[in-house]
Prior knowledge:
Layout: E1 2-5, H1 10-22, E2 27-30, H2 41-44, E3 54-57, E4 60-63, H3 65-75, H4 86-119, H5 126-146, H6 160-166, H7 172-175, H8 183-192, H9 197-200
Amino acid sequence: MKIYADPITVNCRKVLAGLKFLGVDYTLVHTDYLKGEFKSPEYMKINPNACLPAMVDEGFTLWESNAILQYAADKYNRTRAYPKDLTTRADINRWLLWESSSWFPSAYVYLVENCVKPVLGAKPDPNVLAGEEPRFRKLAGILESRLEDSDWLCGDNPTIADIVVAAPMHLHAVQGLPLKDFPNLAGWMTQKVERLPAWDETYVGPGFTLKRAA
């Protein structure tokens, strides 16, 4: 299984951490995000969307980060991380779709303004952040309620839903997400997800560094 990715991005880290969580071996084909290598003609033959990541496995090509994790979980029968029980799987799929359509776009605004722009020598736009906050707070409230009586999103153990939903928050320490009113969500991220070995092994830090400060 080849994964075309740059480990610094949300959706690439999601897939790399998710595959480690699933215990699935892969070969990383580094595709530099900041250099725009995902726009090259060679890469766009794999993913015509010009987006990262993408997977090629035994001649089968797949893009969309959440679909890659679903595929890997099913191929290798990782039923603890992606149960086949109808209602549990529907619940997980619900969160995967919600992350893609709602949660990622909102959290990504904070990532761009507070993390990407400084790397590129630009300043965050406070008006953009202020405009996004109501939507983010609404979505964070949904997670806050879900995590009130549960350590994980879908049952008593972590699933691919936890990896997927955590990914847009992966730089929360410098992302500037307004989490102070959402203790369940913040605790799930820092005390649960970040303590998973798969998450720790795919570390991304401030400035999009892949190495922890000494």
